[in-house]
Amino acid sequence: MIRNYFIIAYRNLLRNKLTTGLSLFGLILGVACFLLLATYILNELRYDTFHDKADRIVFANFNYQSPSDVTAERSQLTPTAVVPIAKREFSEVEEGARVYRFNNREVMVGNQNFNEKNMAIADASFFNIFSFSFIEGNPEDALKQPNHLVLTKTTAKKYFGNRKALGELVEIDSKSWKISGVIDDIPTYSTLQFDLIGAYDSSERSKTETWNSANDWSFLLLHKASQMETVQTKLNQYTKNLFSDDYASGYKMWIGLEPITRVHLHSQISSGNAVTYIYIFSGIAILLLLIACINFANLMTAKASERLKEIGIRKTLGAARVNLIFQFLAESAIITGLSIILGVLLAFFLLPAFGNVANAEIGTQSWNLTYFVGLIIILFVLVTSVAGAWPAMVLSKFKPVLALKGKNLSFGSTALLRKSLVVFQFTISIAFIMATLVAKKQLYFIQHTDTGLNRNNVIMVDASNLTTGQLATVQSELRKSENISSVTAAYDAPVNVQGGYTISVGAGLEDEMSITAIPVDKDFVSTLGIKILAGTDFTLSDEKLVKIEPNENRQYAFMLNEKAVENLRLTAETAIGQPANINGRQGFIKAVLQDFNFTSFHEKIRPIAIFVEYDYFGEILVKTAGGNPTIAISEIEKTWQSLYPDKTLNYTFLDDTYAALYKSEKRTATILNIFSAITIMVSCLGLFGLAVFTAMQRKKEIGIRKVLGASITQVTAMLTSEFLKLVIIAIIIAAPLAWYFMNGWLQSFAFKIRMPYGLFLLAGALGLLIAFLTVGFQAIKAAIANPVKSLRTE
Question: What is the pTM of this model?
Answer without folding.
Answer: 0.77
